[in-house]
Amino acid sequence: MALYVKIPKDMNNIKDTLVGKLTKRQIVFFGLGLAVGLSTYWLTYKTIGTSAATVLLFCFGSPFFLTAMYSKYGIFTLEKIAANLIRHNICPKIRPYRTENVYRLMTVESEYKKEVKMLETGRKQI
Length: 126
Description:
The protein has a two-stranded antiparallel ribbon with strand order 1-2. Helix content is 62%, strand content 3%. The radius of gyration is 32 Å and the shape is elongated. The chain is mainly α. It has helices at residues 24-48, 50-69, 78-90, 102-121; strands at 71-72, 76-77. Helix 1 (24-48) packs antiparallel against helix 2.
């Protein structure tokens, strides 16, 4: 009995996984989220109470979890999108090139031709 296995033709969507279906990037961001969240919890639960410390744990840890899981179209990760937004807002918005108005150049050239023709004939045209 023959076994058939479908092999995808597009290899761009295949990602190396380490644990379960988590990639190395996701494991790193989950670890950072846990480290930041639990450290804020352990530093603040005695002074502000467990409920407020839990809210701070969620507020400080969730950006790392969102960064780990978000991927637009399977290509753009959240840190790439954030870097593009920062670069777009910081960089000067000066156009590096200028377009030329060809129609204006044609009209100027035709006026020069008329003026040369007028000077050659020696007559003034109004």
